[in-house]
Design a protein that fits this description.
- The complex is a heterodimer.
- By secondary structure, chain A is mostly beta strands.
- In chain A, 0% of the residues lie in helices and 56% in strands.
- Chain A has strands at 4-5, 11-14, 19-25, 30-38, 45-50, 54-58, 61-66, 71-76, 85-93, 100-101, 105-110.
- In chain A, the strands form two sheets. In chain A, strands 2, 4, 5, 9, 10 and 11 form a six-stranded mixed beta sheet that branches.
- The radius of gyration of chain A is 13 Å and the shape is globular.
- Chain B contains no helices and eleven strands.
- In chain B, strands 2, 4, 5, 6, 9, 10 and 11 form a seven-stranded mixed beta sheet that branches. Chain B has a four-stranded antiparallel beta sheet with strand order 1-3-8-7, with no helix packed on it.
- The interface between A and B is medium-sized, with 25 and 26 residues.
C-alpha cells in the first residue's frame, strides 16, 4: 500500500514568516511529486511539481525533494493571509500515472 | 476557456435514490478521474478512465458506477448501494502517462443524503 503522510495541522504562522509544510512517502520508486493548494469548499489547484532531488523555486514557493529520505517539502516565504488553505501532497510511484494524495496540512497565516 | 465543469454544485439525495454527477472537460485530455473527499481527509480515488469506452475501479469503487462514452464526459452515478455517500466529489482530468502530468480539477459537487 503506497502511503503519503502529512501532518494535518493546523500550522499557524504570522504574516511575513516562512511556512514549512512536510510530506513523507513510502514507495521508494516514486518519481513525481506535486503540491496542491485547496481553499475551503473549493477544488485543489496545482502550485508546483518536482521530480529531481534538490530545490525548485517559483516565486514565493520552494519545493524541496530528498529521495533518499523519502521526503518532500514546500516552503512559502513571506506568508500572506491569502495563503491560508489546506496543502495537499501528491506522489506518483514509478510505473503509475495515478497519484496518491496525502490528507493535507491546514495552514493559517495570521496578520 | 479550457477547463472542467461539474454539475450540480450542490445535490441532495434521499436514501435509496441513485443520483448522477456530471463532469465535462474541453482540455482534450484522454484521462479522467473521480475522487471523493471527506472532511479532514485527502482525496480517495473512486474510478478512472484512460481512454474512451474504458475505465477501472479505484480504491473505493463499491456503490458507484461510471461510463465513458465520449472523451469529454465522465459521469459518476452514486447508487443506493453506497452506504455513506455524503461527501465532496471531485472530477479531474490529465494527459495520461507516468510523467509529471498534473491533474486539473473541476469545482466539485457537494452531495448530501437527507
Amino acid at each position: 500500500q503506497k502511503e503519503v503522510e502529512q501532518n494535518s495541522g493546523p500550522l499557524s504562522v504570522p504574516e511575513g514568516a516562512i511556512a514549512s509544510l512536510n510530506c513523507t512517502y513510502s514507495d521508494r520508486g516514486s518519481q513525481s511529486f506535486f503540491w496542491y493548494r485547496q481553499y475551503s469548499g473549493k477544488s485543489p489547484e496545482l502550485i508546483m511539481f518536482i521530480y529531481s532531488n534538490g530545490d525548485k523555486e517559483d516565486g514565493r514557493f520552494t519545493a524541496q525533494l530528498n529521495k533518499a529520505s523519502q521526503y518532500v517539502s514546500l516552503l512559502i516565504r513571506d506568508s500572506q493571509p491569502s495563503d491560508s488553505a489546506t496543502y495537499l501532497c501528491a506522489v506518483k510511484a514509478g510505473g503509475s500515472y495515478i497519484p496518491t494524495f496525502g490528507r493535507g496540512t491546514s495552514l493559517i497565516v495570521h496578520p | 476557456d479550457g477547463g472542467i465543469t461539474q454539475s450540480p454544485k450542490y445535490l441532495f439525495r434521499k436514501e435509496g435514490q441513485n443520483v448522477t454527477l456530471s463532469c465535462e472537460q474541453n482540455l482534450n485530455h484522454d484521462a479522467m478521474y473521480w475522487y471523493r473527499q471527506d472532511p479532514g481527509q485527502g482525496l480517495r480515488l473512486i474510478y478512472y478512465s484512460q481512454i474512451v469506452n474504458d475505465f477501472q475501479k479505484g480504491d473505493i469503487a463499491e456503490g458507484y458506477s461510471v461510463s465513458r462514452e465520449k472523451k469529454e464526459s465522465f459521469p459518476l452515478t452514486v447508487t443506493s448501494a453506497q452506504k455513506n455517500p455524503t461527501a465532496f466529489y471531485l472530477c479531474a482530468s490529465s494527459i495520461p502517462g507516468q510523467g509529471n502530468n498534473e491533474q486539473f480539477f473541476g469545482p466539485g459537487t457537494r452531495l448530501t443524503v437527507l
